[in-house]
Design a protein that fits this description.
By secondary structure, the chain is of the alpha/beta class. The chain contains 15 helices and twelve strands. The chain folds into two domains: about 200 residues, Nucleotidyltransferase, domain 5 (2-Layer Sandwich), CATH 3.30.420.40; about 180 residues, ATPase, nucleotide binding domain (Nucleotidyltransferase, domain 5).
Length: about 400
């Protein structure tokens, strides 16, 4: 037997597994690295985040990735070269983080790598009859494994698509494993570039669970901040607070068919980008609008579409708790507007559930890797509502 297969079997049989979860989202701000200790699997999973940090991407890294990010027409050679190159950059960041934490790579059982999404193409978006759903993440698992010396599990989204899903959102698996609670209806809201939430019913009926994207989170605001203000994002909503919402523009932004489609659904910057905002201005017949009013309107657009999606889940006969995570929770105006529109919900962050809100997505992938080697027995109501009952990820050995 290959000795790495034997090693993997030993890891699967351990009482506790040490797994590094990695996440780099569409905001391209940095690599989230979460060193997690996991016990059990499936609904019995327990997780403790031992260390967490975000390694910011330098401007050169961002520009290289942006050259192919969410673009239909790209240089194929760049895609070919970026797949190993991104993995090598991530590997260096991991080794630096481990050195900072004084943890040896030999103490880590697995790396769980999301990779860098460069294109997300659900059929509802590309519309080509002969093709199904598609998504592409760069950052090859073999290169990560070889550079770090740690068994790596990567490319999680492909199995989800192969089994009938859209490759996203994947949060539902980890959300159910560690955040469900009898007697409390929970909405696990994550606001990254794209916003999504998982509904966890308090009766623990798995057939009622679902996860869906709602539309833009930070992606339009961040893109506009970079384009007009040379800023990575609207820190503390300083720009948006200077402006006023343009109601005609807001109405035009909401007119895309995506918002009328049934749950679950996914989307990405392939749809919600600067061109989308420009087209909405044309549709609203607006010839002039100030930059601060544009930002105020984009902020409200994200808040409204998030709140509208959550409202479709609510029943007047039940109470709900919303637990938020992701970069969007640091935008105070966005959160104020969401809460204002959901007065009957109680609002928290995942820190109230002992998970750093900025680390949550990285922790999710550690959980998925744990399932790959030690779980795989959860049915999720027979895979209902586009939640395939499968384990995900490809396994790469260091040698």
């Amino acid at each position: 037997m290959n000795h790495y297969v034997e090693q993997l079997a030993r890891i699967a049989g351990k009482d506790k597994r040490t797994i590094i979860g990695l996440m780099s989202g569409t905001s391209l701000d940095g690599l989230d690295i979460a060193l997690c200790e996991l016990t059990g699997s499936g609904p019995e999973t327990k997780v403790q985040v031992k260390h967490f940090l975000t390694v910011p991407f330098n401007q050169a890294f961002k520009e290289i990735v942006k050259s192919v990010f969410s673009k239909r027409m790209v240089d194929l050679e760049n895609i070919c070269l970026l797949n190993p190159w991104i993995a090598e950059q991530h590997a260096a960041m991991i080794l630096e983080a481990l050195a900072q934490w004084k943890v040896s790579p030999s103490e880590v059982d697995l790396i769980a790598s999301h990779g860098q999404t460069v294109y997300h193409a659900p059929k509802r978006l590309h519309g080509k009859k002969e093709f199904g759903n598609g998504t592409l993440q760069l950052g090859d698992g073999d290169h990560l494994a070889v550079k770090t010396g740690i068994i790596t599990i990567s490319d999680f989204r492909q199995k989800h698509i192969a089994a009938g899903g859209e490759g996203a959102p994947l949060a539902v698996y980890g959300d159910y494993f560690i955040f469900r609670k009898a007697g409390e209806n929970r909405i696990m809201l994550n606001i990254g570039g794209i916003a999504n939430f998982t509904f966890l019913p308090g009766d623990l009926d798995m057939t009622r669970i679902f996860s869906t994207d709602t539309g833009p989170g930070n992606t339009l605001m961040d893109a506009f901040a970079r384009f007009q203000f040379n800023q990575s994002y609207d820190e503390n909503a300083t720009i948006a607070r200077q402006g006023k919402v343009n109601e005609s523009y807001l109405k035009a932004l909401k007119e895309d068919p995506f918002f009328q489609q049934a749950f679950p659904k996914t989307t990405g910057p392939e749809l919600f980008n600067l061109k989308y905002g420009e087209q909405a201005l044309l549709n609203a017949n607006i010839s002039a609008i100030s930059h601060v009013d544009t930002m105020a309107t984009l902020n409200r657009f994200s808040a409204d579409t998030i709140a509208d999606a959550i409202k479709k889940t609510l029943s007047d006969q039940e109470s709900y708790a919303v637990y938020s995570s992701g970069g969007g929770i640091h935008n105070p105006l966005l959160m104020e507007q969401i809460q204002l529109q959901l007065p009957h919900c109680r609002f928290y962050t995942t820190s109230d559930l002992e998970i750093n809100p900025d680390a949550k997505e990285a922790v999710l992938f550690a959980l998925l890797a744990n399932e790959t080697v030690a779980g795989g027995n959860t049915s999720f109501g027979g895979g209902s509502k586009d939640i395939p009952a499968v384990t995900m990820g490809k396994i790469s050995f260091p040698g």
